[in-house]
Specification:
CATH class: Alpha Beta
Number of domains: 1
Strand order of the largest sheet: 1-2-4-3
Number of helices: 3
Helix content: 25-40%
CATH superfamily: YhbY-like
Radius of gyration: 13 Å
Number of strands: 4
Order of helices and strands: HEHEHEE
CATH architecture: 2-Layer Sandwich
Largest sheet: 4 strands, mixed
Structural class: alpha+beta
CATH topology: Translation Initiation Factor IF3
């Protein structure tokens, strides 16, 4: 689990990122979760945007993505989800204690 301080740090880090995934009409599926997991291994921190035509609740989408990809949910702001997962091979982000 992330501390409040770590979440604040990650929110600041994520501020300049653009969403690289979009959840639309089809909602969350296994293929999307797998791609997000792979992207997190390379980047550690990413944004997912939820499109207007998504039928699922944004908090539910955030929960399913974070659990499916075994990642930490940093925040849900508007229609954007920020996810963090420490990379095994490619560690770039040094979290504060």
């Amino acid at each position: 689990m992330l501390t409040g301080k770590q979440k604040r740090f990650l929110r600041a880090e994520a501020h300049h990122l653009n969403p690289i995934f979009q959840v639309g009409k089809g909602g969350v599926n296994d293929n999307m979760i797998k791609q997000i997991e792979e992207a997190l291994e390379g980047r550690e921190l990413l944004k997912v945007s939820i499109l207007q035509n998504c039928d699922e609740d944004k908090d539910e989408v955030a929960d399913r993505l974070s659990r499916g990809a075994r990642a930490e949910l940093v925040q849900v702001i508007g229609n954007t989800i920020v996810l963090y997962k420490e990379s095994r091979e490619n560690k770039q982000i040094k979290l504060p204690n």
